[in-house]
Amino acid sequence: MNIIETFKIAISSIWANKMRSFLTMLGIIIGIASVITIMALGQGSKQKIGDEFENFGVNRIYIGLNWSNEKVDYWRDGVTSTDLQLIKKVFKDDLVAISPSESARGEVAHKKGKEKVDVKAVGDQYGSIEKIDIFKGRFLTKEDVASRRPVAIIDQELAKAAYKSVDVLGKKVKVDTGDRMLSFTIVGIYKKPESAFDKIGQSFGEAPSTTIYCPISILTDPSVAKYYGVEAAVADKDRVDEVKDRIVSFMHKKKGMDTSAGDFYRGYSAQQEMNQLGSVLGIVSGVVGAIAAISLLVGGIGIMNIMLVSVTERTREIGIRKAIGATKNSILFQFIVESMIISGLGGIIGTLLGMLISKIAGSFIGFEGVVSLPTVMVAVSFSCGVGMFFGIYPANKAAKMDPIDALRYE
């Protein structure tokens, strides 16, 4: 019997028991759909995180005090304006921009209520570190920082909430930080890009974050001129961690610090954070995917069970075929092909279902699932492999039947 004829017999046998065949496929369908959905969402989340960090700036670094070291003292070890100028000079070929950075939490009161805000005090170069899309007005200048001008850049959502308009340049915005009231003149309006993290937070009832940028001299004492840390943009994004570590080492050497008991300064990079987050998501996706794949084992056992039933039902057919010359291998091949067709169809349906579920789920959580061709090929191939593995025993049982016993079977 040739291969085409074997496939025709297998399909006709499956079609003759449509409902039973579908129920047998169900375990494979659920298993493959679960794995595809998890892998698609996992890959989509990694891609979205990459896009988010690309917008945030993958070449960004932060150098600040290492508070895990009990010997760290802000008044002694804080980054000074002199330190900042020296870093600029020594690393001028490695850095695009550098700025001190301080922050405070507060609230902006308006007629309809209050808006929680983050007040971020930075230098004039900060606009070259973080991508801030200013569509009205301007960013901070050297004169703003040097003269301690109470000016601020706010986002359009805060402008709409507080003033019902984005035409608010020159107007005042007051921020209550709890220990003092800050009053700023608005000199710029920026548009905050949509973020998947904000969408996820909103789904859990969290309000989207709002940041107000103001001169670093507003939140720090100019007479002290010390900062908890500085942010910078590295020129070569492939050398981000190298430059970060060199700056930390430079700070320790400049101040003559003994780091045998621990570092006084610590560096962080956006690339490092992205890699760590991607690694965690990869582990979570792998573990959940492995758990979902257990249903494939259950589906395989279901295929074995149905194929055993099919062998029993077709005992006389097997006897007749053997009596007219069918070989052991042809009988074996026929039943393996049937089990592979059942599992393969289940794999295809499960893949399509998984792609649909991942697309629907992605619309709710803020990013689309990504299903690659290799993933689809592996899923379908794996489902066929499950069918072949669990079909071997029933097929072997059919192939070993004695034709005389099979013909006597009622």
TrEMBL record:
Q: Does the keyword Hydrolase apply?
A: yes
Name the residues that span the membrane.
Answer: 21-42, 280-310, 331-357, 369-393
Q: Which residues form the ABC3 transporter permease C-terminal domain?
A: 290-403
**Protein topology in the membrane:** Multi-pass membrane protein
UniProtKB keywords: ATP-binding, Cell membrane, Hydrolase, Membrane, Nucleotide-binding, Transmembrane, Transmembrane helix
Q: Give the enzyme class.
A: hydrolase
- Family the entry assigns: Belongs to the ABC-4 integral membrane protein family.
Report the protein name in the record.
Macrolide export ATP-binding/permease protein MacB
Q: List the source organism.
A: Peptoclostridium litorale DSM 5388
